[in-house]
Design brief:
Helix content: over 70%
Shape: elongated
Number of helices: 3
Strand content: under 5%
Distance between the termini: 36 Å
Number of strands: 0
Largest sheet: none
Structural class: mainly alpha
Oligomer: single chain
Length: 67
């Protein structure tokens, strides 16, 4: 996923929100990415889901603007 910087940034934002520093995860995002932890994979899955939803919403907005 390192080649998709936007998806990685989204996964980092999700990871940091799900595992805030007040309730720290066992690893930082970079460590979780390196080790492929469950938390990291969940954050990536959430980012991928969010990308799909946001892309569909963007397409809807573009279609509405054309009408």
């Amino acid at each position: 996923m390192q080649h998709d910087l936007r998806l990685r940034a989204a996964a980092r934002a999700i990871y940091n929100n799900v595992y805030p520093s007040a309730d720290p995860a066992p690893f930082s995002f970079d460590e979780a990415e390196r080790f492929g932890t469950v938390e990291y994979r969940q954050a990536v899955g959430a980012a991928q889901d969010a990308r799909s939803v946001l892309a569909a919403r963007h397409e809807q907005l573009l279609f509405a603007a054309i009408l």
